[in-house]
Amino acid sequence: MEMVQVESFIVQGLHIRTCNELEMNPDTAKIPQHVQFVDSNVGIDYKSGARAYSVYYNYESDVTEDFDILMGSNEVSSSEVALTSVEIVAGQYLKFESEGEFPEAVINAWKSVWAYFSSSNCEHIRSYSTDFEHYENANKVSVYIALK
User: Fold this and answer.
1) DSSP β-ladder status, 91-99 and 2-6
2) What are the residues whose beta carbons fall under 8 Å from the beta carbon of 45, sequence distance 6 or more?
3) pLDDT, tens only, 11-51
4) DSSP label at residue 64
5) Can you tell me which residues the record assigns to a coiled coil (predicted)?
6) Which of 20, 22, 27, 45 could form a disulfide with 77 if both were Cys (CB 3.0 to 4.6 A apart)?
7) CA angle 18, 21, 22 (to 5 degrees)
8) Inter-CA distances, 97 with 4, 9, 124, 145, 147, Å
9) Residues in contact with 11: Cβ distance below 8 Å, sequence separation at least 6, in sequence order
């Protein structure tokens, strides 16, 4: 984990509204199906430098309530459906990295996030503005958590 300064940028993609309670149960989880839908309908030209992101935003309050998740890219090359845009809020973020097979690498990164923020040693407060996953390559993801 490291503290980083993130400049504002736009991510375009497709969004859903969900909550962690739904996502913890394979029978009610929305994200896996949404990943497949995004992969089938949003073109990302990785060769030109575009990168894939998942942005968590519009938090109802905190990790216990509903939030939106938008999956897409900073540069969409094509889309079969209308896209939504979200702006990553500029500011300080904690960056958690994980490598390995997907989706386990993403799950492991979030386990690190949850462990840190539920720890009695946690020195930071989440802002619940925009958090995001940056898929750096086929085996590496970084999760950025916005801080107050």
Assistant:
1) antiparallel
2) 75, 77
3) 999 999 999 999 989 999 999 999 999 988 998 888 777 88
4) T
5) none
6) 45
7) 50
8) 12, 20, 18, 11, 17
9) 53, 55, 70, 72, 73, 74, 85, 86, 88, 132
Domains in the chain, number: 1
Spatial distance between the Cα atoms of 113 and 109, rounded to a whole number of angstroms: 6
41 in Cβ contact with 52 (< 8 Å):
no
Mean pLDDT of 95-99: 97
Average the pLDDT over 141-146 and give the result: 97
Structural domain range at position 58: 2-146
Query: CATH number for the domain including 134?
Result: 3.20.80.10
